[in-house]
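Sequence, structure tokens quoted for completeness.
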Amino acid sequence: MLNIVLCHYLPAVLISVANRFFSNPSKKWSNNLTLCVVGLLSFSITMVAFIPFAHQYHKKLTQQAVEAIESEFHSNVQQLAHLLDDEFYLKPCSELIHDLRTNIFGLGMAKDIATFDQNGKVQCTSSERHPSFRIYSTILKRLGDSDVHATLSYTQRALTNNQALILFFSSDKGRGISVVFPKQVLEMLVKDIFSFGDMKYRVDIINRTAVDLTDGNTLRSEQITSEILPFTVYSTIGYAFYWQFLASKLWIGLLGMACALVVHLFFNSKKVARNSLEFSLAQAIKGRNLSVHYQPIVDQRDGSVIGGESLVRWNDPVQGFISPGIFIPLAEKVGMIDQITYLVLDKAIKMISTNKKAFHDRYISVNVSRSLILRDDFIKEVESRLMFSYFISERLVFEITEEAIFNKDEFSILRQHLDRLASLGIRIAVDDFGTGYSGLDFIGQYPFDIIKIDRVFVTSLGNGKTTQPLLEAIHTLSQTLNMSVIVEGVEEEAQLWALHDLGFYNIQGFYFSKPIPKPEFLDYLALHQPADLQTLAPALS
């Protein structure tokens, strides 16, 4: 998995970022500078985050050095332990010396081996037959206190006057063996471990320094004392240690940088797209480049058109057709929905005022968002446009979607605003009825003029046992409340028949017409007058 990341995904990401950086020289350098800052910052943070791990690694290497020394001397003890058996230990020195010399060759750097009794008297050594010295009582005490019956000493050899490292170990019977090593054995055991970076070290045995390679150039030190033998390893590190450690983790830093760049580019692209769409929408509104299409609302009994719904469309020259489901919520979010609503309203007013004959007994509906209908400035704008145009206002319908629950204060404002609109002659329709939060409670609190049944009821018509009873209940409710009903989303003849049988006659949907531009809509009105005999009436009678 790691090889896949390093060999495939990481280079791919870095190449992608490089292409983005260099592919378009005309782009503002600020964008490229941001990429550099994000990349360098994420890389730096990732690498800095590894500094505590460098400290852990320093401690780990020091611990490894301690374990290497312990392991070596434990191996020596195991290799020589047989010399404490009666078969060897009880031999006279003239015979035992041969065994001692034979075993010393298998210990690498060992210089001398000696046996001693429980009182510390040296009985035989590999170098002389009649030794006359004793083991210090402090060493014997350490042997007795040791859990492993082993200890170390760093002292001066009596024969050579050289400093030497001596390993002592004993059996339960008090028999003991000492092994003399040059102090260089410690360097041999730990030099590879401490070769990382600029590590320096010191080894102390019973508070005596046996090896000291430290200097004054240190940033951090670590000290670990063996729990088995009486020695301590002290190590130091400098800048080179950190650089080498971080260099070994360079791939993680690059991976962190790549991930940060991917995340940055992802969210930046979303932000750019959103801002770009927002900017384009603002330009489209400013240049009045949004178009309004109209979907006819037909009385299926005679095929006449009783009105039409205004539906805004946006065909951006760069991004192409953009769905209202995208730009309408965006307009509401960024505060442009009022401008779009005014644009649609103005086009509806103009079409009615310039085509009075066509709209003698027809209307145009305009969608008004929940947030906008609650704004007093919107109501004032509508009043200023229609105060002296009663002919036009009577042929306007404002569609309000029951998309969310109005609280008590909001509904009080809503009633006031709807009353002011009604005083102008504007009728109010509840759009997408049956899909919102409020349902019957919503239409029961205000005398709305029209209910528009959502397409979900039409889609499930004939497929579910509950749809028809619900539609029948809505039909009864509309008659009780003296409301007109329009059914949206009708696309098939079977749906038309079923709705006709239920008493729903005012239909909006692709079965009759999709939303069409103003010229085509006016032609459609001319062809579908109430007296037009080319209707569906014969088919439905």
Summary: Residues 293-311+332-540 form a domain with the TIM Barrel fold (CATH 3.20.20.450). The longest helix spans residues 250-286. The radius of gyration is 47 Å.
